[in-house]
Amino acid sequence: MSEADRRPVRTARPNRTIWSKVSEDEFRGNLVALEERTNAVPMDVQVFPLQEEITNTLRLPLQVDQHLADDLAFLAAVQEGAQSVAAVCLEQHHRPQRMLKIRVAAADFTDESLRTLMTHICDILKSVSRGGSHDIDPADELLDHVIKRHQHKILGRLRSRKWDKPRYLAASHKKALWKDFENVIHRVQHVYPAKKEKAQRCQVENLLKVLAGCYTRFEDCEEGELTSGLKALVKSTYEFCTCREIRHFAARLAALRPTAQIAAAVKCLYQLEKIGAYERISIDLVKSALQYPNTFENVELEYLSPYASVPTSLAYESWAKTCHVHAEIQLVVESDLQQVAAENSHCETSMPRVIGTSKYLCYLCYLFIKHHGRYFAPNTHGRLYDQWTVPDLDEYHDCTREHYAKILADINEEVRSQIVEGACWRAEPMTSRQNLLLQ
User: Fold this and answer.
1) 3-state helix vs strand vs coil in the chain, percent to 5
2) Does the predicted model carry a pTM greater than 0.90?
3) Cβ neighbours of 224 (radius 10 Å)
């Protein structure tokens, strides 16, 4: 999608701007100052528990809503790089008929493979909810579509020699994922050092060696076996990550005093989680359609057109010349616009309650959603991207404009407070987890 085809970010007149309580230059200047003091990571990785709610029989439980939205966002992130970040929210409508709307936002929708994949997923879930017959297991069928559309991305996660490395990673020389297994296997003796733990140590080492063999053999598969080979690898990785012995090992490993070798081993296991997640998500989506058939009988997809980038002269990195609207913010803005439109026309509307993301929320998306107040902010990787921005639109209702102006002012105050009181250097975090290794 060309810049000319994207939605404009700044259409508000000077007297109707969301930057009325804090100027954009002051806001961005404070972001850069905080980045300089914290290595652009002003917050540790955080995961927050979702609060229980009284179940409404007409709606999905809130936990299920969040789980589905996150899983669909993970699958919607087909591309690599900045284009790999996607966000999803679910609207459950009951009048004039029951319908689930899946709204998808991402940096770019030029790749038709995303739309094709999401359509296949919805068709399978609708068929399952209606009790349709399937020649193969629906979860297996869903995984086939996922593997086909995510093939290049999975190869990138493997750092496979079969992967066509994108241009922006041309200078990267990371070794293949399977080569990290040696370090992980070596850590087992440190996790289970006692003689009485010898059986556990041998069992975990054997499980790791079996999976390592699967990964090395995959590198030798023929071109025509690539898709089936990836599917087998995903399934093997899922079984590995959900094995009780490996979960215990991962928890003990993460609790050790951190060293570079231990950190590398933990990172390898977290990467395996993401590969195994394709199987887990396929299974869970089908289970949800079976458990809540009325919700999935009628599913509609909506894709938000991304916003154009806008120039900036204030940035932490010298190469950063433009600002962008993150997928999560696209969804928040769209929902606010639609709610006001529905209220003005006296129409009944069902607003989304959660926002699902393919990665953890960045620092600024987390703060925006927290101060916005409507949605639960489940997590953040704590990384600050000063190229972040919010659409400044003339079409905002006065109450929306005032609300956004206050949110930006509140974020600015929080940033200023951190500069003075809590700024410290942090290492760059991993931006997501799939948590298959959780007990």
Assistant:
1) 55, 10, 35
2) yes
3) 8
